[in-house]
Write a structure and sequence with these properties.
Elements (H helix, E strand, L loop, with lengths): L8 E3 L6 E4 L2 E3 L6 E3 L6 E7 L2 E3 L12 E3 L5 E7 L2 E3 L9 E3 L6 E7 L2 E3 L12 E3 L3 E7 L2 E4 L7 E2 L12 E3 L2 E4 L11 E3 L7 E7 L4 E7 L6 E5 L7 E5 L9 E4 L3 E5 L27 E7 L1
C-alpha cells in the first residue's frame, strides 16, 4: 500500500555473531534498530558506532532508536559507542534493553551518547529503559541527557524495587532530567545544566570517509572537530540532505568547522501527495549528522 511502515533494521540471531556497525540511521517509521523475536532466543549481537535519530518521525509518532529485547532469552548483547538523539516529547524511550523475558544474560552498554526519550512529565519512557532483569549487565562511560527537568534519565518499568536491580553502573554522566537511582559512586548528575558540546567521529577504516555526530548543547552556529587520519582535500555533506551538495565544499587540514544551523532536507523516496507521511523537517541546531569524504 501507499502507507509508510517498518523499521530501519530488524535483526534476529541465534548462531555466530551479527554486528550492526558504522551507519547513519534516521526517519524510520517504527523503531530504528530492532533486535527482537516473539518466540525464540537471541544471542551474540553487537550494535557499534552508529548514529541514529528521528525514529518514527515520518509517521508522526516518535519511536525508539534502539530496541534490544526478546520474548525468549537475550544473551551476549553489546551496545557501544553509538550516538542516539531523540528530541520529540514521546512515550517511547530512546534506548530500551529487555522486553518480556526476565532471564537474560550478558549485556554491555558503553561509551554511548543518549539524548532524549520519554515524555516531559516523566510519567512514561526515558532516555535509557531497562525493562527486565539481566545477569551480568554493565553500563559504563555513557553520557545520558534529557532536555526536560522532569523527564526520566533511567527507568526500570518492571523492576520497581532498587534491591532487585542487579546491574553495574560506572563512570556515566547524567544531565538535566529527573534524578535516577542508577547513579553511583564516581557518576555525575547535573540537574540544572547541559554538558559542553560533544562530537562523535566514526572513521570508516579502509575508506576515505568519516561519519560525524555533533550534540550542540550550547546551540552554536559552528563547531570545530578534529578528525584523525584526514588527509588531502575534503568535502562535508549533511546526512539529512545528501543530494543537496556539500555544505563545506572543500578544505584541507585535520580539523573541520561544521555548520550547525542547517535547515534543508531531501524528499523521501516514494513520497507522493497521497501518502500519509510527511517530509520531516531538519533537526534543530542542537543535533546534526555529517558525512565527510576525502
Amino acid at each position: 500500500n501507499q502507507q509508510g511502515h517498518g523499521n530501519t533494521i530488524y535483526l534476529q540471531n541465534i548462531a555466530g555473531t551479527k554486528r550492526i556497525e558504522n551507519n547513519i540511521l534516521f526517519n524510520s517509521f517504527r523503531d530504528q534498530i530492532t533486535i527482537y523475536h516473539s518466540n525464540n532466543d537471541i544471542r551474540n549481537v553487537e550494535i557499534i558506532g552508529n548514529i541514529s535519530f528521528n525514529a518514527g518521525a515520518p509517521a508522526y509518532v516518535a519511536q525508539r532508536n534502539i530496541l534490544a529485547g526478546s520474548e525468549g532469552q537475550f544473551s551476549n548483547i553489546t551496545i557501544n559507542n553509538n550516538a542516539l538523539y531523540h528530541k520529540t516529547n514521546t512515550d517511547k524511550s530512546n534506548l530500551q534493553v529487555g522486553y518480556k523475558n526476565g532471564n537474560n544474560n550478558g549485556l554491555e552498554v558503553s561509551r554511548n551518547i543518549i539524548y532524549g526519550g520519554g515524555n516531559e512529565s516523566g510519567t512514561w519512557g526515558s532516555a535509557l529503559e531497562i525493562t527486565q532483569q539481566w545477569a551480568d549487565a554493565s553500563f559504563s562511560n555513557n553520557l545520558i541527557v534529557n532536555h526536560a527537568s522532569n523527564a526520566r534519565l533511567v527507568w526500570y518499568p518492571n523492576i520497581p524495587n532498587a534491591e532487585d536491580r542487579h546491574f553495574r553502573f560506572s563512570n556515566n554522566r547524567y544531565y538535566m532530567g529527573r534524578g535516577n537511582s542508577a547513579a553511583s559512586s564516581g557518576e555525575v548528575h547535573e540537574q540544572e545544566k547541559y554538558p559542553a558540546n560533544e562530537a562523535k567521529v566514526y572513521r570508516i577504516q579502509g575508506e576515505n570517509r568519516a561519519f560525524v555526530a555533533i550534540f550542540n548543547f550550547e546551540k552554536l552556529d559552528k563547531q570545530t572537530v578534529r578528525i584523525d587520519g584526514l588527509s588531502g582535500n575534503y568535502q562535508v555533506y549533511d546526512a539529512q540532505n545528501l543530494v543537496g551538495g556539500a555544505v563545506v565544499a572543500t578544505g584541507s587540514g585535520s580539523t573541520i568547522e561544521f555548520p550547525l544551523n542547517l535547515t534543508a532536507t531531501f524528499k523521501p523516496i516514494g513520497q507522493t501527495d497521497g501518502n500519509n507521511f510527511k517530509n520531516v523537517p531538519h533537526t534543530e541546531k542542537q543535533f546534526n549528522a555529517f558525512v565527510v569524504t576525502w
